[in-house]
Amino acid sequence: MAITQQIDADIKSAMLAKDRLRLQALRGIKKEFLEAKSAPGSNGELSDADAMKILTKMAKQRRESARIYSEQQRPELADTELAELGVIETYLPKALSDEELTAEIEKIIAATGAASMADMGKVMGAAAKALAGRDESHFRQSACDARQIISTIMLTLQQIKADPHFVVERLAVKGFDGAKPVARVIALDDMRRQLQLKTDNAAAELRKMADSIGKAMKEGRKDDAQKAKDEVAVLKEEQKALAEELARTEEAIRNELLNIPNIPYSGVPEGKTAADNVEEAHGGAMPQLPADAMPHWDLAKKYNLIDFDLGVKITGAGFPVYVGKGAKLQRALIQFFLDQASEAGYTEIQPPYVVNEASGYGTGQLPDKEGQMYFVGADKLYLIPTAEVPVTNLYRDVIIPSERLPIMNCAYSACFRREAGSYGKDVRGLNRLHQFDKVEIVRIEKPENSYAALEEMKAHVQGLLEKLGLPWHILRLCGGDMSFTSAITFDFEVYSAAQQRWLEVSSVSNFETYQANRLKCRYRGDDKKTHLCHTLNGSALALPRIMAALLENNQTPEGIVVPECLRRYTGFDIID
Questions:
Q1: Given CA atoms 101, 106, 109, 115 in this order, what sign does their dihedral have?
Q2: pLDDT value at position 3?
């Protein structure tokens, strides 16, 4: 029998039995069904799937109303809402418990053999399909909430529990000892699951007692109803204590997960330092300079391009002042990089230069890089170390329609980094600054497309260096030299001829689902379900060392030659 027909039959039964509370609830359901049937585009019909969606929504509303009335010390109204909730839930199939959901997803992950973050989107899609088997609205709200937790915040947790030895082994490639953190996460999750089960049981008992109160009131057994109400009050306090302990446990799990880095992609080489990075490709001709060639800091002084001492006076070391043609060359590089990104299909964003704590956690700068970020204490804001942070956070807590992907953004920004502990010849001049300019490219991709996107981003950066005429090479970073959040990273370096050393000018990374998991950045697939996106970003390019290499490599007795691709922006061919 269709649900709508069942409701009609049950209304007649309730009328005959003179069951006022049940009749009131059933008539409320009937009203919602009639309104749905008369809605535009409904054709006057209501499928069982749509009816289940309505019932699920009504159950959620009744549950929330009962909570509010209880907090307002209005027990009679709360009891009425709970009684109606009990009627509504009789038409909803039994939901999978949190324990059952977790167990099923663990089975799927184990069967799929998920070995990297890239696999997880497909695994979760398979999990949702296997668990549902029909429309999601067939599950009660508690089951939906549990699935939501598992599919976003606790995705990393599920991967850890599926194969903790593999996780610890892969984290070791990054030089991270994951044995104790992984063990703590698993122990905390066991505690969480026990608390969740107790909380669910308490909620079920409250619903059962609400039904008994309604029945006692209807039959005129006021003493029995009052006794049950007193028991409900005690049980509610117990439920509240359980909920608070559950919240504390979930927060402890979250804090542990925030301090576990991303698992490196299978193609990441082992190694501890930059010396273990692997050269992937190289190009460009090495400049031939005379023996008396000058480093860029001397060239900047000779041609009055950059005043490092004035920056120290105004702010401190690492905050240079660009002057005259130096300022124009800087601006020319920014515009050239932005124009090239636009031609490649990137949409320009002009982001804020300060972000809140949630944004820092979303992209993974917090808590890992907190000591390297400038903090505005009065407002609890952070100066951005890269435009990656605000631009990627545009999609925090967002479900992106599948047809909008890929998202390709670029942004120019000033960047601020404390660079604590940096000293010596490697920080002289423009080599390492506290404030510098950079153009960033950011992509949000479906998991199956992210590594093709990574290759496109690498080709874009390589093309910029070739147009600037700089010698370059690409390094595949080893595990020990990678960032906390990256699954794989490629560094681009240019050769600075007067210093006779390679300078890093770009990092291009795929974070797979690591950032998206923190951000809750998801897309809705063709299956109508949500999946975590992959996030990628890269410098295209960072200016200080590009400027240093251009000044040094292009110096001649007549002056510094400006690359041809920049001349329409600078308005001059040579700095003399």
A1: positive
A2: 81
ω before 406 within 30° of 0 (cis)? Answer: yes
Exposure string (b/e) for 396-420, b if CB count within 10 Å is 16 or more? beeebeeeebbbbbbbbbebbbbee
Q: Give the integer Cα–Cα distance in Å for 53 and 48.
A: 9
Q: Give the pLDDT score at 117.
A: 34
- What pLDDT is attached to residue 424? 54
Report which secondary-structure segment, H or E, holds 222: helix 222-258
pLDDT beneath 50, residues of the chain: 95-98, 101, 104-105, 107-155
For residue 561, the cross-strand partners are 574
Cβ atoms of residues 117 and 268 within 8 Å: no
Structure confidence by residue, pLDDT tens digits, 320-333: 999 999 999 999 99
Beta strands in 497-576 (DSSP E): 501-510, 522-524, 530-532, 534-542, 555-556, 559-561, 574-575
The two tokens of residue 33 are: 């069904």
The whole-model pTM stands at 0.70
Q: What pLDDT, in 10s, does the model give residues 532-544?
A: 999 999 999 999 9
Using CA atoms, how far apart are residues 10 and 488, in angstroms rounded to an integer? 60
| pLDDT at residue number 341 | 98
Q: Is 295 exposed, middle or buried (0-12, 13-18, 19+ CB in 10 A)?
A: buried
pLDDT score for 12: 85
Both tokens of 127, joined, read 């999990």
Please tell me whether residue 291 adopts helix, strand or coil conformation: coil
- Contact (Cβ atoms closer than 8 angstroms) between residue 520 and residue 531: no
Map residue 530 onto helix, strand or coil. Answer: strand
| Pairwise CA distance, residues 533 & 546, whole Å | 32
Rounded to the nearest 10°, the torsion over CA 132, 136, 141, 144 is 60
Query: Partners of 408 in the beta sheet?
Result: 443
Give the per-residue pLDDT at 350: 98
* Interacting residues of 269 by C-beta distance below 8 A, sequence separation 6+: 276, 277, 278, 476, 478, 479
